[in-house]
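Comment thread on ticket #2218

A.B. wrote:
> Attaching the input chain for the structure job we discussed in standup.
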Amino acid sequence: MEANRQSQKYPTLSGSSSVIFGGIFLHLIKSSNSPMGSKQNELQGGHHMIRTVLVFCATCFWLQTSTASLNETSLTNSFPSIARADRAESILAEMTLSEKISVLSGDGAFSTPGIQRLGVPSLKMMDGPLGVRFGGYTAFPAGVAMASSFDPDLIEQVGAAIARDAKADGRNMLLGPCVEIARMPLSGRIFEAFGEDPYLSAQLTKSYVSGVQSENVIATTKHFAVNDQELMRMSVDSKVGERALREIHLLPFEAAVDAGTGSIMSAYNQLNGHYASENPWLLNKVLKQDWGFQGFVVSDWGATKSTLPSALAGLDIEMPWGTYFGTPLQQAVLSGLISEQVVNEKVLRILHTMEQVGLLDSNKSTLAQHNPEQKVQQDLALKAAQDGLVLLQNKDNLLPLRPNLQKLAFIGSAAMVARTGGGGSSFVHTDRKVSPMAGWQQRQSEIGGHLQATWTAGEVFAPDLTTVPESYLSHRSGSGSAAGLMAEYYENTDLSGKPAAVTIEKQISFSWDWGRPAGVSTNSYSARFSGSLTVPRSGNYELVFSYDDGLRVWVDDQLVHDDWKSHDGIQAVQFARIPLTLKSSVAHHLKIEYLQIDTLATLQMALREPDNKGILEDPLAVAVQLAKTSEVAVVFVGLGPKIESEGFDRASLSLPFGEDELITKVAAANPNTVVVVFSGTPILMPWKDKVKSILMAWYPGQEAGLAVSDALLGKVNPSGKLPMTFPESWAQNPTASTYPGDGITADYAEGLYVGYRYYEKKNLQPLFPFGFGLSYTQFQLSELKVKVLQSQSIDPLMEVTVMVKNAGLRAGAEVAQVYIAPENSKVDRPVQELKAFAKVALNPGESKAVTFRLSQRSFAYWNEALSQWTADPGSYEIRVGTSSQDLPLKETVTLQ
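C.D. wrote:
> Ran it. Output below, let me know if you need it in another format.
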């Protein structure tokens, strides 16, 4: 790792600071001494002039600190040009400066102003990559689940379907896809993206973008770039070498540009010392100059840090407000600090993109009023969920379940809720959520089956299943009492002063997320809930809370829980168990105080109740007993939006809430144990050898329960492949020695060796390798043929053909994977890299020949000395198989 760190070359900014400094300084002096119109004269007086000088000074400092070696980057007003379109040019010519400035920033949470007199529509944006966030639309599987399908055609269909929902919601710009590389397995939101391999991610990104924009909706590929952790995401400085950037982390974005993505979203973090939204090497040189990007760059929400540095670096739209790109940018133009041509270039990019996707065409824009057919959307969501299922283990062919089973146990809280997705802005608030139990019951009804599953939670923390019954909670009202708790909300973090809002809450079950309680206008606030808790029987109880950030609880004036602090960064949502002995018909005084810092607000309270004898059952013991009396036990475990979310990273790779113990004890009680896992990232499996079958369901979207039930029943044959490596332990993964670091810098010391590249270089055996996935049938690959085309100066360079046969008794699909391994390379390169793949559906006994085409780029690495892709002459081994560790077919080729 240390050697890798020392050998990395970090891209830096360029330009002569003295020349640029002098140019702007002279321009400022000239503007100050020359006669100007009334608007500019106003700028010279009072605080306006002070503001201009402050902007100027900050810009000079930034330019002075932005010197270095990549001379291609310019910080002057000479920008990479875009292809001009007559319509866009003509509109630009009619716009006033104020109108131009107005379209360069948001006028609300998800929109920019339009210009009605010129027929320029508002950009109406919406999250996100997994479906339209609000409004009850279709919740598609997480990006990692889509990636497991290894099916670009399917992903293109999903992109188009999400765009149709976006249009139905009156939107013309989708904030997706999310294409960060899954570098660090604890990262809170990599479930949104397409895994650890840049080639796989690039192919799926192309398809997603093409699908979205086929529906006249702008795709926004995000987050540019290396926004790979949530810990300190607003400021962390990602230190990454140029080869690692070009070959690994930037490749999906380059593919998005190739596919014509209309927009790129700049990230929150810094890259090699400069914020992504004001990084000219990233935005101007790589994106706009090297790749020829024709669209516009929009900031992540609140990611813009400056006016002139951001404008000069290549940022085009600031969201959600014009803090820097509103009045300050207009003043900078009027005072001569920046040329109006810079503004024109930005506006032209926006208009050009609108024209490309048909937003300037009234006939196409009216399509936004048409609602998609919901059955079509649901069927596609189910297909995507089914194709993303990965069968990791299936001893004795326990799955699919035999039809003559008599007693089946479903264990785990995840059996009763649909784990549609992780948390954050990608979470789709859909109207349809099919849990595994509901899906099982529906399928049994459809087939006339009589195998009903018996369920028990088996675990304490199930706050999404139970709340405190409303009849148990009350507060004083006049001389008597009334239902619910008295709630007081304060616009501060210490419950001081007069509350901003007072109301009655019948239950404590809130997921404000990025919002806030009614009547509260700040993101940081506190609340107090007070009243009484009255239970119907005496005995042992347990209050169960989930919360972010702080919580204090008093029962009968005794402080029983005290955690008054912020939990942002790593595992923000906390969980608490409070054992109580309560008497029936006694109003036990209850006081709850809640602290929220910034965003991701959640507070939920549940109550575990005793049996008729006043005894609180041990849920684990109940689960073990159920397992003992069942023929097969299916344990549903995993994460969810409170454990895996935008805004914070996970605390560990282990399952939460004692679920490892639950699986271990259930498996000891029943040898026929199946584990179904819901998560967006790898988990540790200390119980792997104790269970027979493991099905990785990821976050399957709204049709979760049907997809899983179909796999359990054999209605579908799992065909997914892992898009990321599952490590044996946290210590085994390539980021273990550098994360979390000091919270200031994210050290990408692994360089090129992300995911399977690292495990192969270090000769480590992971829990499950990249590309791995079993089936209910068996496949055979044979007859590898490599044909070098006549001229090695053309693309494609060669064709690779392999025969794939279904040698089993069930229909199924296999993913043939092609890796290239350089032999005796003169530069440091991974052992092998995925360069082609194809998913092949086959009936029993059927065979198909699959042909792949490899180009010069397939063999190339980024040559830092030449600043270009280079395929060195020499020998390369072509390896073909069904995972990164199962590549039985090999042939060596030579590049001249």
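A.B. wrote:
> Thanks. Noting for the ticket: The first helix runs from residue 2 to 7.
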